[in-house]
């Protein structure tokens, strides 16, 4: 039988008092307020299995035997997977998918993404339950337990306790502030984004080195690291000849926000530790993700994933579908010629169902010790205008008149540019992509229609400018719908 650990550890120290407005002067991890007031521990970890809160300074492992062995399809060498950021958009879907496939899963999350919603009023279109309720429902539906560790990975003592207690074979790292617009609101958000993302990742690398040296790191990167060069984008590395000499080097990075820059720093730090310490790592440079459902999140409404439609966290296709559902013109930035690879606000796209499958493939086919791999994780490329046309056509079939309006581009980026990125490695491992279809667009539009009463129209228009970012903290207060 496989042993399992619930644990006690030191979690991040939260400031007391009510949640402050977004414009507080120095938003750092140590100043982050408690998300749910007295319902969330200021200093401690929660066990999903027992519901107990632990508050000692050092970790105390509580062993509890599981009543099942992993399916034969799951290799014993990678059966235990820690999903950092498992309460988020990609992390939640991935945790459920891996659990369903027979992996032993633990979620590590500070729940800070929910805090951002409280501060900004940028609530998900779909109503999401608390993480404890989600995991309880998953156990009811699947019979499978996912461990929960609540805390901040920027606090190394907490992360050390997670590693010693769970002893992961693989770590899937989604636990970063993932919005480019958020990182460009003001100086404090820029600093928070870089500190949270870079320090958190360095802590994960040290934890692997010290406590799980055989562990495989699967890190979520972004296609935005590459920028929009006027040459083809390779998967992580490029072979060049210069002055008669040839070498294979990391592909040049041209990040376009403080968020994207934090991802570039992550990639460099991971590559360095693979070389220096023998860490094994796979960097998944993901495109813009769309959709909200996976087979697992559809099993019950309490398991539903979030769907962001606002100008800070919402991605292009998800935003367009919500806008179309309520009769708001689709907000195309500038000329709309920006080619995007479906996922974040960069250049390539993929279905959320493919995100979870890509992670599974990376885990099942781990990098070698000392190897730093880069996979470009997207399935299709579109311009923003092409996405708008697809949504317009899908809306018409549902009897919705969809209009488009051009709005000033808040970003600093080329309005029209060459874009061709390679993405063959995951296909070679067996990825069978879900391409953007009328059925998927119908599904997104119907989800938006179902929850239309939750839409706050004041959040739709972009309100963060790359050029106007300043040192004065901004308080962004959404108007009530």
Quick summary of this structure?
The protein has 481 residues and is an alpha/beta fold. The chain has helices at residues 89-100, 112-120, 131-142, 156-166, 180-183, 187-211, 258-277, 316-325, 352-364, 384-397, 425-428, 438-450; strands spanning 3-8, 45-46, 53-54, 60-65, 80-84, 104-109, 147-150, 170-173, 216-222, 237-242, 245-250, 280-286, 288-290, 330-333, 339-342, 348-351, 372-377, 382-383, 404-407.
Please explain how this structure is put together.
With about 475 residues, this protein is α/β, with parallel strands linked by helices. It has two domains: about 5-220 and about 250-285, Rossmann fold, CATH 3.40.50.720; about 300-460, UDP-galactose 4-epimerase, domain 1 (Alpha-Beta Complex), CATH 3.90.25. The chain contains twelve helices and 19 strands. The strands form six sheets. It has a seven-stranded parallel β-sheet, sandwiched between helices. Strand 10 (about 235-240) and strand 11 (about 245-250) form a beta hairpin. The longest helix is centred in the middle third of the chain and has 25 residues, at about 185-210. The termini are far apart. Residues about 1-70 and about 340-345 have low confidence and may be disordered. This is NAD-dependent epimerase/dehydratase domain-containing protein. One of its GO terms (molecular function) is UDPsulfoquinovose synthase activity. Belongs to the NAD(P)-dependent epimerase/dehydratase family. One of its GO terms (biological process) is sulfolipid biosynthetic process.
